Amino acid sequence: MLRKGFISGNIYNELAKELIVLTELDGAQSTCLNIIENLPSDIQLKIVENLSKTNNSKLIPLFQLISREMEGEVQRIAAKTLRKLEYLGHKVNPLIPRQFSSLDVQAYVSPSRLQGSCVLVLIMKVEKDYHAYYFSLAFNHLGIKEYFQHTSSNKEELLKIIEKQNLRSINYFSAQRLLQDAYKQNQRFGTKVASGFSQYKHFLTNNTKVEDTENNRELWLAAKESTPERLVNAYLLALKNMDASLVYDLAAPGLQEKFGDRNDFLDNWVHPFEKYSFIKSIPLAWINGENNAICQYQIIGSNEKDELKKIDFSFELEKINQQWYISVVKIECFCPITDGDPLNPLNYEVYAGVYSISNYNSIKSTFDNWDKVHVTGEFEGGICYKWFKAGDPVDKGLDISRDIYGEFILTNNELIIFSSGLKNVTEICYFFQELIQGTNNPVHLAVKGLCLVRDVYRVITDTEFMLSKELAEKNHIYYLSFQDYQYWHNLIREQADERYFLGSKIQVFEIKKENYLVEALIYRNHIFIFSYGEKLEKWGKSFPVAESNIVDLASEWEQRGEKEKWHYCKLLSNLKKDPYTKFLVPQGTQLKMAKNMRILN
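Above: the chain sequence. Below: its structure as tokens.
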């Protein structure tokens, strides 16, 4: 028992030391508080007791946060420690002045409010130092998402940081309103605000006497020209996020008058699509005038029961002082989307690359440690992942597929990588192969092809279904023989519609014609052709092919003649030696061929 207590004491002491090191990093107090808050209550108490025994004045800001934001014995120990440190002669500065004027605060914000989030920085002088309060605000359920404080005796140092982040100056009242709007989202959704609340709560409640003389909308739109299209996209995004403050601020004065007082509107707003997730917005019609515009949009959405609906909106807009406002919003139609409807997201076409795998756990471990991808679902026999990317729905409209770089489904037999863009799939396949280089993961890119989303998702509900077999019927991977390398290289370059590099060694060319799509990968002296939807020999004059020039890597080798088998076996042997081309060699093919040709017994 004594030994156990001794070990536990050492562990708590080590944890306390780590926190002390962390607190020495400027602005890390709220991070330390967040760590402590997420520990079990008995461990919280032990950690704070160990910290209190150090008499370290650098811990004063952390003890201040604990004493204000935590409860019970932990709070009592922190408050007692602060009194002790003050008695020992250490100065305990206030977290923020109790009284301050709005003129004492300089405020800066990123011009991204229309996208539903922004960075806000408040700078003010406390005693002899300048304190910078950094906020990451999201105007959905996250609200005040992140916060930290940075202290410097040099104001110019802080302003240089502001300049590098492309933040714009605003008055304090406007900054306070942004902070309050984000806080209302925390209250609406019942979500927790960022740690360190006692350091910044004064900004939420301290009233300014300065009149609001700044139009926030001009700042939000300053990065790009104000257009009717951007305004409607921003409004639909605000509906998607349940961003009541933006819904109100984008409204014309006449519509705001119908809404009533802004604070009352934010407190009482009932979102008509609260239970819906918006998937995609589709512009149907526009009539633009010099100072007025009318448009119709269709939204594809799903409710809490995953029922798909299409919702038709009509908007009337007006231009006031060079800024567009929404004056009328109507919901024209609200109806279900059937399984066969082209608007059903399951009927969208995607590109997919399918790897044959033999070690599920090894691939899963790779994905568990891949910081680019995130688990988004699990099912019996597999896991779903997504690789997210930042999009700009205000410029391009709502489309959740634009916010996803790629998706993955891992089953016992296959790894499926799919996306709405072929380039995305090709790049992600390359990144994945780079990731598993040097490992003993036997994987093989069986096929790349074009299919419906519902075909991809079929592997989740049908354990016998294999997407690679489905795609292999219409999509093929070819190898072009070495002696014709220059001819093919020139032909591909001439006909390519798009070209890019994977890393520094692999060139990719896309050739798009009315009835077919070809993707060529040129690597060293190798050329691989991926055909989508048609066999290579069907392309005729647009892409001349001689049968002797190409090898279909997925074709049945048993049907070849003895000479062809030898050439094919030699080709696979050479490809398997290279760190990139080895992924295109069908697993087990060489061994089977060797036995068939009596090279091996």
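The domain at 348-455 is CATH 3.30.70 (Alpha-Beta Plaits).
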